[in-house]
Structure prediction request, 351 residues.
Amino acid sequence: MAAKSEPASMDRFIETLSPLHIYPLWRQKGLLLRKPETKAIPFLWRYAPIRERLIEAGRLISAEEAQRRVLILKNPGLDGKPAATSRLYAGLQLVLPHEIAPAHYHSASAIRFVIEGQGAFTAVDGERALMEPGDLVLTAAWAVHDHGNDTDEPMIWLDGLDLPLVTGLECSFFNEIDTPTQKLTRPDDVSERLYAHGQLRPTWVHWTKNYSPLAKYSWIQTESILIDALNDGVAGSPTDGIIFEYSNPITGGAVLPTMACFAQLLAPGLHTEAHRHTTSAVYHVVQGSGTTIIDGKPIHWQPRDTFALPGWAVHEHVNSSSEPAILFSFTDDPTLRALGFYQERFEKRQG
Ligand code: GTQ
Prediction:
């Protein structure tokens, strides 16, 4: 009878393979996993202590010298990698009064969600987007962008980038341009006036780029959409409450090819159903307080905190307060959907 290989002879066999740089698939660990695994952990970054360090960084280095004065939110599970989840980067950026963060471009795509300050700008595609708290500003891959603050107050925002994905795919490019600021070719906030209403398309613009032509999604509009839905008694999604995706007004799809953005309102007393999806997310608290239970770990959040949801982690949101809570989030959803890797499962609630 043909016996199975003896373990000892198998081990001897395997030893002969390494000089040839080959290895048996049947012994390979961590390759054909039955379900997604990640080293990223559910984690919350409180705003106040980070803000303090950011202001201190403002005394130590200029925006110009730093290029971008950013404190990166590093997920403690990811061995010091500059990443909030295994595919998403997040950071808090400070631009002090009368500073410039010089013009550059890169193959990574970025979103900015404004936390503090009023009236600083991001220039992108020849247009300045003037930034107010809660505004979402896009700077897509390859688009030249610079930031500036002509006001007398510091400006702080959350940066979200697809950098771990881009570097993981070994496709990172980065360049400065010759001048600290880009040439402005269009009026401030013009894309908002052309596209923010969503339903009337300017027919003379032939937008063929793979990202939204709308540079800024203003908080005034986003907030009133959420509050109107609450007042209309809309229940929204069982797992996310009243949740809207920021969309590309041309395609109706995600704002960027690699990242999607969402604004959601959790009504007072809401405890959502639990689910998990392959996408990972970074959440930022705009208003209210609550708890998101992630893989059994309660993450208690307050305004201006930021927290990470690793891919495939079971989660549910709880707003036990008597006020509505509002969360902004960005995810890697378009990347996973484009590749056919999007999966979602409904789960039993953990709390
Ligand atoms: O503002 O362009 O947090 O290029 C990381 C890389 C911000 C930016 C970051 C960047 C930027």
